[in-house]
Amino acid sequence: MARRPRRDSARLSQRGPEAVNEKGAVGRAPAALAYHGRMSNYLASAAYKLAAHLPRQLPADGGREVAFAGRSNAGKSSALNAMCNQNRLAKTSKTPGRTQQLVFFEVQPERYLVDLPGYGYAKVPADLRAHWQEFINKYFQTREALKGLVVVMDVRHPLREFDVSMLEFATARELPAHCLLTKADKLSKGAASGTLQKVRHELAGRASVQLFSSETRQGIDEARAVVTGWLRG
Ligand SMILES: Nc1nc2c(ncn2[C@@H]2O[C@H](COP(=O)(O)OP(=O)(O)OP(=O)(O)O)[C@@H](O)[C@H]2O)c(=O)[nH]1
Ligand SMILES: [Mg+2]
Description:
Layout (H helix, E strand, L loop, with lengths): L5 H10 L2 E3 L5 E3 L2 H9 L7 E6 L11 E7 L5 H9 L17 E7 L2 E5 L10 H17 L3 E9 L6 H13 L3 E6 L6 H15 L4 E4 L8 H13 L1
Parallel strand pairs: 4-6, 4-7, 7-8, 8-9
Antiparallel strand pairs: 1-2, 3-5, 5-6
Helix pairs in contact: 3-7
The structure holds guanosine-5'-triphosphate (GTP) and magnesium ion.
């Protein structure tokens, strides 16, 4: 194939991402393809907005948001990152108690994902734990923008006391809830699907549930579809 004149290729690269078409010619990626690539994951544009320690630090209560709740170390921040296809959006850690505020990620203007501090971590000082509890309770009771709750549970320890309370709370507020049984990579396929059936049975239609793994990316499309649907309304 004849080389393109330098002038031409320089101009092409200034105009944006280049692609090779079926005939091997260098050119711009078709606009529709680039558009589809961005749109196929609505959550990919998520960016850190703010971390709230006090109710007055919350964004204005006018949009739509989805909160990720779960025991400390269950994998909430990792799930959020996997769904947004970003490695370092939410801070994750081997040490429980990593997320210490209500952290808001903006997907679109007034469309947020909210990473919550984990519950049940004994080493968090009692006064801080009491503060979170009060703040989170108030947030759940009063926040109009809250349109859906994701309850993240380690597949090896599902439906612990706090998880059940969160789900009861969602039912009482008529808030849709979706459970991620995460770290599914830690169990055999048979054991994981056994747990899924059991949890589904216990939930008895009060919330939807799926297997998930941030490590192997199992269940990511399914989880994204639920969250995207809630955010878009
Ligand atoms: N194998 C495996 N490990 C995971 C998975 N999800 C999270 N982890 C690990 O579990 C640990 C805790 O993950 P985080 O996402 O920080 O958990 P968290 O629920 O946000 O924790 P807090 O912020 O402390 O409440 C980290 O070491 C992660 O790498 C998963 O699907 N599979
Ligand atoms: Mg976290």
